[in-house]
Design goal:
Strands 3, 4, 5, 6, 7 and 8 form a six-stranded antiparallel sheet that branches. A six-stranded mixed sheet has the order 10-11-12-15-16-21, with helices on both faces. It has a six-stranded mixed sheet with strand order 24-23-22-27-30-32, with helices on both faces. The radius of gyration is 34 Å and the shape is globular. It folds into five domains: 59 residues; 91 residues, Roll (Pdz3 Domain); 220 residues, 2-enoyl-CoA Hydratase, Chain A, domain 1; 97 residues; 146 residues, Rossmann fold (3-Layer(aba) Sandwich), CATH 3.40.50. By secondary structure, the chain is of the alpha/beta class. It has 22 helices and 32 strands. Helix 1 runs antiparallel to helix 2, helix 8 packs parallel to helix 9 and helix 15 runs antiparallel to helix 17. 36% of the residues lie in helices and 21% in strands.
Length: 716
């Protein structure tokens, strides 16, 4: 059979087999792909996509890195404070708040490509090994670190390490011709969160809290004890620049300043029901006058502390509006050592306000520009530039107006201090020139400067030195041109800061802050308020201040007296045993009851009066949303609220503008409450300030006497 004939015979067979094979392969592939599609569509879409990429992508992909790069994008679509922290950064991110890390225990700076030791932590690994301030670290584990332009981050990672591990340091010390070698065993190095505490004025203690970490409360209590021993009876708590940290630390600090039963904060989220946190009465400074300093960088836990003090009328907030972070993050560790900090709830101050400023999901850049926008709008310079949201108006325990939706508004606004600030000053500050000069000056004159026993003596010496002219020559040599006119304006400010930086190199923060803050206008105002006895808020002129920001008034005792009255009231048997209590929102001049109502309405049935013609109807209070303003400007329950029979009332609380020692009450208005009281045979407690208690007041035949009268000084 020739070739053509054989082809004619076999060609149909070959074609048939090919078709059959094609059908088989096609069907098999279809089943496979259909099966995969089914699996992918029924599971988690992200996992499905990653599986598809891993199995079918044209090139090999580092799937682990792909996931690492993708996760931050997911979190970028959430609120601005939910964040993913890779494993390599997680430990470092937590060190500041945990209160310690493992290292050698020195602070250093880079000076002309050399590691200059500024401070050796007392009792730390380096001090035990023999290192001294102003030693230069030339080698680390026999590797040269001088002159190789290693950045501070790399050096820090090299010096830190596992606890009990050893690092070998080659040290150049003045007057020593050869390198000195030290084997330093790494150990726990404390990270302080209370930067400094000292007596800023006679009897007034100042405490600077830079963050709220694991050890903050213990550091704070230690500072309080030290200041009390020095004779301090009132305190300035400086939270400026404090961006927050652990909520528990702020709660514990608040507890030191208030009696038992005061609401500090509450949290609430989709998966987390409302949780109220109250003071427990163990505080050591419950009667001490207090002022809190804040600024635009005071955030989170700082705002919890400030909000609790303000809403409970415990002290004054002085400074500028805080950051506005009212979201709670929960740290969740993942198996590879990475961590997410997920927003799980909002926190609310005692008045019920959430101070979280506005944000849109996925628009972090706009959120981050908020501080800049505040600056541009003039908020740092004038209280009139602060835009308050009247739809988020709340009241403190005493009845002062406060606002939510964007930080804690100060009770006393202090603009930023621009005295002495010029373009020349800004240039030398932004370039780091002031600090660099202070380092080099300290190094050059170490023997002389180290001989002073106190920071005050060193400061006096520095005030006699030509630091300003020396510095301007130094700066000029570094490229910052002299500007005589501007230097004349900024001269004192420049000198003060240089002196403070030099003193810090020898006496740490204890020497730095008293000098650096010597002319601090915010701190000066706080001291003035405390010296004048005006740290307790009052209600006078609450609506006559800029933008409703409450001011300290002369009658400070009334503000604190209110808290005393509430404490006495809540401790009486009549109050403790009562389950249904009638009272009302007090009018100006009376002891304010708004805070008492908000605190207790979830635990007891509280009845508030509604004016109906010439009578009052008692209705069950069901929260702020159930209130309306009545004909006399007093908050009343709406008519939709539940009526409660008078027979179920256990107690009536009666604010008044005056009482006498015969238990008579002086009413005002049209006698609505007097007529109601005359019809109810129920125990009655009158509340007033001590100055409102008179020897005798006019009484009418239908008036009903009080069973008890409570003032801040006594119970009658």
């Amino acid at each position: 059979m020739d070739k053509n004939k054989r082809l004619a015979v076999w060609l149909p067979v070959i074609i048939a087999l090919s078709i059959a094979l094609g059908i088989f392969v096609g069907n098999h592939y279809l089943r496979l792909t259909q099966g995969k599609r089914h699996i992918y569509s029924s599971g988690n879409k992200i996992n499905a996509i990653l599986d598809i990429i891993d199995e079918q992508y044209v090139d090999t992909v580092d799937m682990k890195q792909l996931v690492e790069d993708a996760i931050p994008k997911v979190f970028s679509e959430l609120d601005p404070h939910s964040v993913y922290i890779p494993a390599k950064d997680a430990q470092r991110a937590n060190e500041d708040l945990e209160g310690s890390f493992s290292g050698i225990g020195v602070s250093f700076n880079i000076q002309t490509d050399t590691i200059l030791v500024i401070n050796v932590i007392p009792g730390g690994p380096s001090e035990k090994a023999g290192l001294k301030p102003f030693d230069r670290i030339i080698t680390i584990n026999d590797s040269l670190y001088a002159g190789n332009k290693s950045d501070q981050e790399v050096i820090m990672k090299t010096l830190r390490g596992a606890k009990n591990s050893t690092v070998k340091l080659g040290i150049k010390r003045k007057n020593e011709p050869e390198l000195l070698y030290f084997d330093v065993t790494r150990g726990d190095v404390p990270v302080s969160s209370v930067d400094v505490s000292y007596e800023v004025s006679k009897g007034i203690g100042y405490i600077k809290v830079s963050k709220f970490g694991r050890t903050t409360y213990n550091e704070f209590i230690t500072a309080i004890a030290k200041l009390k021993q020095a004779g301090c009876t009132s305190f300035v708590i400086d939270l400026r620049g404090n961006t927050g940290g652990y909520m528990d630390a702020a709660i514990n600090m608040v507890n030191e300043f208030m009696p038992e039963g005061r609401l500090i904060v509450y949290t609430e989220g989709k998966a987390f029901p409302r949780n109220d946190v109250y003071t427990n009465g163990t505080g050591t400074c419950q009667d001490a006058p207090i002022v809190v300093l804040t600024d635009e960088f005071s955030a989170s836990a700082s705002e919890i502390f400030s909000g609790a003090i303000q809403d409970n009328d415990r002290g004054l907030i002085i400074g500028r509006r805080t950051f506005g972070k009212g979201l709670v993050q929960s740290p969740i560790q993942l198996s590879d050592g990475s961590e997410i900090r997920l927003t799980i709830a909002r926190y609310y101050t005692p008045s019920g306000r959430c101070i979280q400023k506005k944000y849109e999901l996925g628009k972090d850049s706009e959120y981050e520009q908020d501080i800049y926008q505040r600056f541009m709008h003039g908020e740092f310079d004038s209280a009139d530039s602060i835009k308050l949201n009247n739809s988020e108006k709340y009241e403190t325990v005493m009845g002062r107006p406060v606002y939510g939706g964007g930080g804690i508004m100060p009770d006393i606004f202090i603009p930023r201090d621009t005295s002495g600030v010029t373009s020349y000053f800004s240039n030398v500050v932004n370039s780091g020139m002031l600090n660099l000069y202070a380092l080099e000056y300290s190094d050059r004159n170490y023997d002389k400067l180290a001989s002073f026993k106190t920071y005050q003596d060193l400061h006096k010496y520095l005030q006699q030195q030509p630091l300003l002219s020396d510095f301007t020559n130094y700066a000029a040599a570094k490229g910052i041109k002299k500007r005589p006119h501007l230097i004349n304006i900024s001269g004192k400010l420049i000198e003060k800061q240089i002196q403070a930086y030099i003193v810090r190199n020898f006496f740490d923060e204890a020497g730095f802050y008293p000098i650096f803050q010597n002319d601090d206008i915010t701190l000066k105002r706080a001291v003035k308020v405390l010296n004048e006895g005006k740290s307790f808020p009052t209600l006078e002129n609450k609506n006559n201040t800029p933008n409703g920001i409450a001011q300290s008034q002369t009658n400070a005792s009334r503000g604190y007296g209110f808290l005393k009255i509430m404490d006495r009231l809540e401790e009486t048997d009549l109050f403790l045993q009562a389950s249904c209590i009638a009272l009302y929102h007090a009018i100006p001049g009376e002891v304010q009851t708004a805070g008492l109502i908000e605190k207790w309405y979830r635990k007891k049935r509280l009845l508030l009066p509604l004016i109906k013609g010439n009578d009052l109807q008692l209705l069950l209070y069901a929260g702020k949303e159930s209130l309306k303003t009545g004909v006399f400007g007093i908050l009343e329950p709406s008519e939709d609220c539940e009526a409660v029979p008078e027979s179920e009332i256990d107690l009536i609380i009666v604010p008044g503008v005056a009482f006498d020692r015969q238990h008579n009450r002086l009413g005002r208005g049209k006698g609505f409450y007097d007529r109601l009281l005359s019809t109810l045979d129920v125990p009655k407690i009158g509340i007033c300030y001590d100055f409102q208690l008179k020897d005798q007041i006019p009484a009418e035949p239908f008036d009903r006497k009080m069973d008890l009268i409570i003032t801040e000084k006594e119970i009658l």
